[in-house]
Amino acid sequence: MKMIGSPSVGGSKRRLSSGRGLGGALREQRAKLYIIRRCVVMLLCWHD
């Protein structure tokens, strides 16, 4: 019975981490900041 219960706990942890909770919002903000930072660096380093 312990073997059957442990995968469901792991599955729920995975579902929470990939969900639209606080972790999901934080990951999305970090991704947006990363893209903006890369664009700024490309614009600053771009030469004709």
Automatic annotation (TrEMBL):
<dbReference type="Pfam" id="PF08137">
    <property type="entry name" value="DVL"/>
</dbReference>
<dbReference type="InterPro" id="IPR012552">
    <property type="entry name" value="DVL"/>
</dbReference>
<dbReference type="GO" id="GO:0048367">
    <property type="term" value="P:shoot system development"/>
</dbReference>
<dbReference type="GO" id="GO:0005886">
    <property type="term" value="C:plasma membrane"/>
</dbReference>
<protein>
    <submittedName>
        <fullName>Uncharacterized protein LOC116200950</fullName>
    </submittedName>
</protein>
<dbReference type="GO" id="GO:0008285">
    <property type="term" value="P:negative regulation of cell population proliferation"/>
</dbReference>
<keyword id="KW-1003">Cell membrane</keyword>
<keyword id="KW-0472">Membrane</keyword>
<keyword id="KW-0812">Transmembrane</keyword>
<dbReference type="InterPro" id="IPR052153">
    <property type="entry name" value="DVL/RTFL_small_peptides"/>
</dbReference>
<keyword id="KW-1133">Transmembrane helix</keyword>
<keyword id="KW-0217">Developmental protein</keyword>
<feature type="region of interest" description="Disordered">
    <location>
        <begin position="1"/>
        <end position="24"/>
    </location>
</feature>
<comment type="similarity">
    <text>Belongs to the DVL/RTFL small polypeptides family.</text>
</comment>
